[in-house]
Specification:
The chain is an alpha+beta fold. 40% of the residues lie in helices and 14% in strands. The protein has 7 helices and 8 strands; from the N terminus they run βββααββαβαββααα. The strands form 2 sheets. Strands 3-4-6-8-7 form a 5-stranded mixed beta sheet, with helices on both faces. A 3-stranded antiparallel beta sheet has the order 1-2-5, with helices on one face. The longest helix has 22 residues.
Length: 248
């Protein structure tokens, strides 16, 4: 299934916090809610009231944000998750895909979430906010559609200074070499993650060609000042700059 061009969000698209759902053909898209996690306990859960939402908050805290067995806090799958939960800037939504939904329809929904997250995260920096969009239902029929939509919207994601990844449990599907973040985890359901591009993403931006111009635009000065510490990193940086016609 080939990816389609990145769509633009519909005029007037809004995800104002609301317990209801927005219907677009074969999609049901609840508005994002904030997961809060006080001192690491179960209090303060602002889940969206669904069974899957009730599972995802502790999953993010205790699996994605936990470093036990991973040799230290910096080796958590995502070291920012627990801080985002404590700060109330880890957002959650569910995109329910029903029937023969086309990748373009899912892509339009993801672009709507991207626009919402861009506005929300600009207010919440520097707390490393994130948005998790879960896809309830059997993964097998969903994954080809969602993966195609994810690839289609990546240019729009990078243009807004964000990065995204799709995580799921299906090891039969090979990694996408254009976005080689780890994707196969034990998970309650397939899920899509949006976050801001940060200075620590230098190595990721050097691996992912599409992402490098956005990283360069946002963090080139910081990279030159403190992150190009090795000859190899400097050479890869200069090569990437040449490939994109950017200033080394």
């Amino acid at each position: 299934m080939s990816p389609e061009p990145a769509p633009e969000p519909p005029a007037g698209e809004s995800f104002a916090p609301d317990p209801g759902a927005v219907r677009r053909g074969e999609l049901i898209r609840p508005a994002p809610v904030a997961f809060r996690d006080g001192d690491g306990g179960d209090e303060g859960d602002d889940g969206d009231g669904t069974e899957l939402g009730a599972v995802f908050r502790p999953y993010l805290r205790d699996y994605i944000g936990d470093s036990i067995g991973r040799a230290g806090p910096s080796n958590a799958i995502c070291p920012f998750v627990r801080g985002a939960l404590r700060a109330g800037v880890m957002h959650y939504a569910e995109l329910r895909v029903a029937g023969p939904t086309a990748p373009r329809a899912v892509a339009r929904a993801l672009v709507g979430y991207l626009a919402w997250f861009d506005r929300a995260s600009q207010r919440e920096l520097p707390e490393h906010p994130g948005l998790v969009v879960a896809f309830p239902g059997p993964p097998a029929p969903l994954l080809p559609v969602v993966a195609a939509a994810h690839r289609a919207v990546l240019p729009a994601v990078y243009a807004r200074g964000c990065t995204a990844a799709l995580f799921h449990e299906d090891p039969a599907e090979p990694d996408d070499p254009r976005h080689p973040e780890p994707r196969y985890f034990t998970a309650p359901a397939p899920f899509y993650v949006l976050r801001r591009i940060i200075p620590a993403d230098l190595q990721l931006s050097l691996r992912v060609r599409q992402m490098f111009p956005a990283y360069h635009r946002l963090h080139a000065a910081e990279a030159r000042r403190s992150r190009l510490r090795t000859k190899e990193a400097a050479e890869r940086w200069n090569q990437a700059c040449r490939e994109h016609g950017l200033t080394p």
